Amino acid sequence: MLNKLKSTKKAERFSTRRMESLSDGVFGFAMTLLVLNIVVPTITSIKTDSQLWQALVDQQRGIISFVIAFFILAAMWSLHVRQFEKLDNVDRRFLFINNVRLLVAILVAFSTSIAANYEQLVLARMILPINFLLLAIVSTWQWYYAINAKPPLISDMTESEKRMHKIRAVWFIVFAIIVVAAARFIGELAFAIFILMPLVVKLTAREEKVRETTE
Fold first, then answer.
1. Which of 3, 10, 51, 136 is geometrically suited to a Cys-Cys bond with 176, CB 3.0 to 4.6 A?
2. Across-strand partners of 90?
């Protein structure tokens, strides 16, 4: 009976290949959908270059939202790639969390559309940052689970590295919350706050090195 339970537990682990393929496809599709939020000017209403230019200028909010949302998804996909490079295998719970992560990611296209079409409304300005905050929370949840799973899904990571990644994940969520608060007043431009994130990452790494030397 014990051997049967052990073999069943072992069978619950899967390769990451299929999940990576699905994740890449969903992120790629979501990033492509974003461009649909930019409306092409009606041909019959455009007679001169100046009219075309003005029509494009009128789309500036949609274009800004598209660029910001595109790079948000690109950054989250990049994070996804880096995390998956450390995984040995995955289990059913990790697969479920990843599906939630993809669901939240693909909603970015919808959030961007709301932000572009209802920019005068406070909720519309905040909905994309809120979507990003949810994505950050789910990404952190998935990463925490991967680190703490029993037996572990990641084998070649020291306790110091785990601690550092957890601290960075918390800071990531803190920055996302600040962006949501700032978006009430300046919309998607609040994402510029993330320019400070590399500084926090560097300071975190430095503090961890100091801690290692004192232990």
1. 136
2. 14
| Model pLDDT, residue 210 | 62
Contact 201, 168 (CB under 8 A): yes
Max Cα-Cα span within the chain: 80
Cα–Cα dist 90/70, whole Å: 28
For 126-185, how does the pLDDT look when each residue is reduced to its tens digit (9 = 90+)?
999 999 999 999 999 998 898 888 877 887 777 777 778 788 888 889 999 999 999 988
Other Cβ atoms less than 10 A from the Cβ of 181: the count is: 12
| Banded pLDDT at 8 (limits 50, 70, 90) | very low
The pLDDT of residue 101: 95
What are the helix and strand counts (H, E) for the chain? 9, 0
Boundaries of every domain in the chain: 15-214
Token code pair at residue 56? 């494009």
* pLDDT tens digit sequence for 80-101: 888 888 888 899 999 999 999 9
User: Per the omega criterion (within 30 degrees of 0), is the bond before 151 cis?
Assistant: yes
CA-closest candidate to residue 76, choices 24, 4, 19, 5: 24
C-beta separation of 68 from 131 below 8 A: no
- Cα 36 versus chain centre, distance: 20
Give me the pLDDT at residue 7, please. Answer: 47
Listed in sequence order, the DSSP H helices in 34-189 are: 49-58, 60-84, 92-106, 108-117, 122-148, 159-186
Residues 180 and 185: their CA atoms lie apart, in Å, by: 10
